[in-house]
C-alpha cells in the first residue's frame, strides 16, 4: 500500500470489502487535509494567475456565467479573458455559491504528488477537485460520477446522501439524475474523515450550517468501452511499414495479407485482462514534474567545474 492510499483509509487492505460495492467512511490517523488549505487557496486566487476552466462557481441550478467574476484584462493592448478576480469570487461564495476548483493535480504541487502516488497504488488515473461550499448550501444536484471518489473533509462539515449504484447493465451516463434510487448511506463528514463513493452511485452533499465546508475530491477514473475500442483499433492498425499505394494487384494482395497476419498475431497475444491492463496504464497520469529537471532556484546556484 502506498502512503497516499494509507492516508485515505488508514487500513492495511481496506478496499476489498467496499470497492465498487458500498459507500464507506474512513477515519484515518493521518488524513491528507493539508494538501490544499484555505490559506493556499487565498494565495492562489490573489496571485491572479489561475484561469478558466480550472475554476468554476456553481449552484444546484447550474454554472455561474464567468463574466460575473472574470473581468477582462489588457495585455499588450489586447483584451484577455478568463482570469478570475479574487474579490468577485469571494463575494459570490459569500452569496451562497459553491467554488469548484478543477484538476488541482495540474497546478498545485502537493496535490500533484499525492495523486501520482494514489494512481500508482490503484493503477488508474487520479484527478483532484476542491470544493468550497457556503454554510447550509448544496453545490451540485443529485448526480452520478464516472469515477470512484474519495472525499476528504478539510474544514467545516457536510451531510452526504448516497443512493443506489448505476444500472447493472452499464447503460448510464454521469451527471445529474432524477432517479437516484433508495438511500444507501446518510452521514455527516467531519474534518479528517474520508468518504468513499463508488463509481456511479448517485449522491448529493449539503454543507452544515454555521461554517464554510471545504473538501478535496480525489476521483479515480476507470476505463470505458470507448477506451477499449480505441486502443484495440490502434493496436490492430499498427503494423508493418507498407507502401501507401502498392503498384500491382499482387503487391496489394500481399499488403492485405501482412495486415491480416499482424491483426491475427495481435489478437492471439491479447485477452480481456491484457487489453484492460494496457488501457489503464495508457490513460494519462497525474501531471507530475520530472525529477531530473532542475528548478529555477537550483539553476541560480553556481556549479563547480566538471572534473
From TrEMBL:
A Pfam family: JmjC_2
Lineage of the species this protein comes from: Bacteria, Bacillati, Actinomycetota, Actinomycetes, Kitasatosporales
Cofactor dependence: Fe(2+)
Protein known as: Cupin domain-containing protein
Iron in keyword set: yes
UniProt keyword annotation of Glycoprotein present: no
Recorded superkingdom: Bacteria
Keywords recorded for this protein, A-Z: Iron, Metal-binding
Cross-referenced InterPro entries: JmjC_dom (IPR003347), NO66-like (IPR039994)
Domain JmjC: 93-239
